[in-house]
């Protein structure tokens, strides 16, 4: 009964607060809850505020509340739900001009993409965020957004193994945010991953600890520092010390429900107990790691499929828009040429000045036709390059195919994970609309062998007998 009364009281308290708070105050209170790891209050507070802002037709407040809720879901590895709320925020931001909030929207989308392993797509969003921030006012919130951009691009570049870009982000981060503890945690992490300059790791973690206390940083910052100390002592093979720090970070991650960090810490504790030859404890944490990891990966697969599908729709729309532009230019050019021809025929005997005007018009039209041809060539170049790579049996064919058709490749392996690399390569030939003879040349086999492969692949994909495999691939 007391619990019911408390929830009832809390709900109406939050409802009352949200009516009095501006979006800036909403953001401030949310940050306080997040830093304490009180994510239940983050949800309750922002959901109540979102309801209030919708009732009072406040798109700025609604967008901010949606972004805050999305951030919390992302923290819990609920990426599909997070992206849903971000999509709602995007709809609200169409009605207002707020560069700061648009930057935060891009950052949260990037955060989800990075967690899902879509690092290039994440960087695209972060670059868009920088564009917004260039036109945003110089506020604390917008500085935090820029810090976020540097930190996540740095992390993405590490996963993409781009050392020059990593060093660039490191220099920008140190120059712009010298008092941010997570900058020094990231530097320590960089040395740890390279297994070098371990004395420097200790120095940067100590600096991060001092700044965390000075800045009254979030709980996650302390967890991140403890985890890196554990990693440091693991490299030094001082496993008892390493275990102490992992066990210090785990309660923090459990309190703020950081799924990815909890999984990683379970794994670290399991490996440490294994190194200490404590098999019962090692098995205990291996079980925890396996159960949580399987659950999170299942959710991530669904979220990745959703993201890839949305990206595919966007890319297809862009491609269709490009072809529409090309067709429109070609149509205008054709009509203009016809008009010029008719005018010239009708006014053939008129003065030279008018002829010169017509010549200028014809020149402009010719230039438009050249531009049209260039656009067509730009669209077709990648596909032609792919066809040449296929027929010449180039070993980098599949890598190039993934770049040109990322959405197709991802959709294929998600829907049919049992396909072999050879199957995927064969399907790629079909996607390029190659004939049986051309496919045979690619693999140095007969046309009969190509037909046999098609038959076997249809059975593997469980397609009806009357379905044409080539047409099915083009429609996938």
Automatic annotation (TrEMBL):
It comes from Chryseobacterium pennae. This is Tetratricopeptide repeat protein. Gene3D superfamilies: Tetratricopeptide repeat domain, Winged helix-like DNA-binding domain superfamily/Winged helix DNA-binding domain. It is found in: Cytoplasm. Its main location: cytoplasm. The chain crosses the membrane at residues 322-343. Belongs to the Rap family. GO terms for molecular function: DNA binding. InterPro entries: Bac_ResReg_Asp_Phosphatase (IPR051476), Sig_transdc_resp-reg_C-effctor (IPR016032), TPR-like_helical_dom_sf (IPR011990), WH-like_DNA-bd_sf (IPR036388).
